[in-house]
Amino acid sequence: MTTTLDDAARRVLGPGEQLRDIQSEALRELATHDMLLVARSGAGKTAVYAIATLLTGRLTVVVSPLLALQRDQVEALRAAGLRAASVSSARTPAQRRTALDEARGGRLDALLLAPEQLVKTDVTDALATADVGLLVVDEAHCVSEWGHDFRPDYLGIAPTVRRLGRPRLLAMTATASPRVRQEIVDRLGMTDSRVLVRDADRPNIWLGVQHCATARDRDDLVVRTVLEESGPTLVYARTHSHADALADALTDAGRPSDAYHAGLPRAERLRVQDDFLGSRTDLLVATSAFGMGVDRADVRLVVHAGLPPSLDSYYQEVGRAGRDEQAARAIAAVLPGEVGLNRFLTSTGGPRPASVRAVLGAVRGGAKDRGQVVATSRLGSRTVARTLGALLEVGAVQHEAAGLRPGTMDDATALRELRERHDRLRALDRSRVDLVQTYADSSDCRRRLLLELLGERHPDRCGTCDSCDAGTSLDVVDSRLTGGQRVVHAQWGPGTVSAVEAERVTVLFEERGYVTLDTEIALDSGLLVPA
Q1: CB of 84 within 8 A of CB of 78?
Q2: Are 70 and 64 within 8 A, CB to CB?
Q3: Strands across the sheet with 493-500, in order?
Q4: How far apart are CA 163 and CA 123, in angstroms?
Q5: What is the CB neighbour count within 10 angstroms for residue 169?
Q6: Please, is 359 exposed, middle or buried when counting C-beta atoms within 10 Å of its C-beta (0-12, 13-18, 19+)?
Q7: pLDDT confidence of residue 410
Q8: What was the pLDDT predicted at 349?
Q9: pLDDT (tens digit per residue) in 356-389
């Protein structure tokens, strides 16, 4: 029996609820094309693939990076009447086998798994014999090294798609700059794809930055700001120890608070997360580990005790406020030394030569997936994931439908390519950190800067940030440059305009990263020329 769009929408959304415009447009495009859907949290992206699953009557495979997120999505799909299951490290081997057998036998509508599960040979073997009609990549920015949360296992999705006979592909993320969008499309191997982007603006969230002279001043400001807010509040700290210290300080000041970070036992993290998301607690101090999958509608305040090392990750965290569309605030307390700390936290030496040789040796010896590389190389799973991701990126290892295979590089060439890759990424990371400082120091409209860096035209002052309140935001009067425009710099070559402020322009250069220039000087001197 064929399911109509109205019937499918009613099952997923509930009686009396109507499809939003973005959902209708996404479903129309998805019927005939691969698609990247960029829409803010709460726009109903999950409903798109749930409805598409009902319309096709075929299996949908969802790649979702967090266990808690998988659990919530399985529950939501089952509530809509879909047969859903997950394959993850939280399931027993028997439960994983049962889920794969049900998927292969046509007894599931949706199977959710993490990217590291998708690249396992036994999983891809099972799915290759299933009737997969749609593969969904949630949090798709994780496939991009230009994004703020790169995950090497996402690089294995494209060959798996080929192994499954190229089912329709739907990638979803809340925010992605134009460069990240293009990298998602390319790295997932999308064909004849459509990119659907909807307004990332959250005008109900007031944005502000307060500069503090010392760490003590910053922490005192955070405590005072939180105590002034009676509604649900989320505080972001940069390190485990700082999260613990702020939680203790807030508790001592009369507002009991939990801490959440990767240094806690897994059971404790799950308890703290569930208590906050379930509204049993109203105040949480967390590191960036409290990220993807966070969905509580009534958060009234997000406070950052120091800015993250990139503006896209900052906007992701800010976006956890005011999801009920009611007024909310986002305040960042910033120290003069933020740039140095962020550069330290983002610095990485890349994979060690010994790890590179061990992984290459395992692949040359016949290892076909990450698990086999771990067993052969005797390296840790995370080390193998990072090393494999880097080797895949430079072409020293190939990932095909049948699994991993060595490229044509010898060890010396692979190590040289990895060093050059590391230098490029380090330059990009440094430019991202500098851009965060530009945001913190700006007296111009903060929302305009954030949104234009995400690829949206936003020339007008927002009226809901501290700069607009203080009257220091300016109108953009030099219209010779626009966001997304290609330009050429006399020294750094081709680039793309990322953000246009009243007097400055930020350009993303391939090798240099983000650079902020005085618009009038750069254009009038010929230093920067529109392509």
Answers
A1: yes
A2: yes
A3: 513-518, 504-509, 493-500, 486-489, 528-530
A4: 11
A5: 24
A6: buried
A7: 92
A8: 62
A9: 999 999 999 999 888 889 999 989 888 888 898 8
Q: Which residue shows structure tokens 């973005």? A: 22
Place of tokens 């955070």: 222
> Within 13 Å, how many C-alpha atoms sit on residue 70's CB side?
23
The structure tokens listed for 30 are: 């998805």
SS3 284: strand
What average pLDDT values come out for the chain (531 residues) when binned by 10 residues? 80 86 92 91 84 93 83 86 88 90 94 87 89 94 72 83 92 83 90 85 94 95 96 95 96 96 90 92 92 80 90 85 94 81 57 92 90 89 85 86 85 92 80 82 88 78 94 81 84 85 82 84 90 82
Q: What is the β-pairing status of strands 283-286 and 205-211?
A: unpaired
Sign of the dihedral defined by the CA atoms of residues 218, 305, 455, 395, in that order: positive
Contact 185, 195 (CB under 8 A): yes
CB-based contact 386:345 (threshold 8 Å): no
CA distance 124 to 334: 47
pLDDT of residue 355: 93
- 38: helix, strand or coil: strand
Q: What is the pLDDT of residue 89?
A: 79
Kindly list the domain boundaries of the chain, sorted by start residue. Answer: 5-197
Joined together, the tokens standing for residue 511 give 């090798």
- Which fold, 5-197? Rossmann fold (3.40.50)
**Which tokens sit at 246?**
């702020």
- Residue 133 in contact with residue 59, Cβ under 8 Å? yes
Find all residues with CB under 8 Å of 361, minimum gap 6, and list them.
376, 377
Under 8 Å between Cβ of 349 and 425: no
366-391 burial code (b ≥16 CB/10 A, e <16):
ebbbbbbbbebbebeeebbbbbbbbb
Q: Which residue has the tokens 């860096």?
A: 453
pLDDT at 348: 59
Calculate the alpha carbon distances from 421 to 181, 343, 394, 425 in Å.
Answer: 20, 18, 8, 6
Q: Which two tokens stand for residue 113?
A: 């798994």
